[in-house]
Amino acid sequence: IEKKAHKVRAKVVATIGTIDHDFALPNPDVCQQLGCPMKNDVPYTYHNSMFVSPTYPSVSDRISLSLLSS
Questions:
Q1: Is the pLDDT assigned to residue 18 strictly greater than 60?
Q2: In terms of pLDDT, which residue wins out, 2 or 44?
Q3: Partner residues linked to 42 by β-bridges
Q4: Which residues, 6+ apart, have CB-to-CB distance to 61 below 8 Å?
Q5: What is the pLDDT of residue 58?
Q6: Per-residue pLDDT for 2 more than 70?
Q7: How big is the CA angle at 36 (ends 25 and 44), to the nearest 5 degrees?
Q8: Which residues fall within 8 angstroms of residue 14, CB to CB, at 6 or more apart?
Q9: Fewer CB in 10 Å around end: N or C, the chain?
Q10: What is the distance in angstroms between the CA of the first residue and the CA of the last residue of the chain?
């Protein structure tokens, strides 16, 4: 974090082949868990999970978690 972040949300994107797919987290509000404003040079540990239906095909492509601040 380069400056104080007053609103932070998590975003999950899975890249399958060449296509990016957004996946909804049940609670993407990071501030609800960690408190805001978040400060730079302070270590934070963030936990979240999401359900992946067993009907989804098994893939070994890239999944990324991003924290977006505003």
A1: yes
A2: 44
A3: none
A4: 14, 15, 16, 17
A5: 77
A6: no
A7: 70
A8: 20, 21, 23, 59, 61, 62, 63, 64
A9: C
A10: 11
For the chain, the helix, strand and coil percentages under 3-state DSSP, each to the nearest 5: 5, 35, 55
User: Look-up: residue for tokens 């972040």?
Assistant: 5
pLDDT band, residue 1 (cuts 50/70/90): low
Looking up tokens 């359900």 gives 51
Residue pair 44/69 in contact (Cβ under 8 Å)? The answer is: no
Give CA–CA dist 38/7, Å, rounded: 8
Coil, helix or strand at residue 32: helix
pLDDT in tens, 28-55: 999 999 999 988 888 999 998 888 888 9
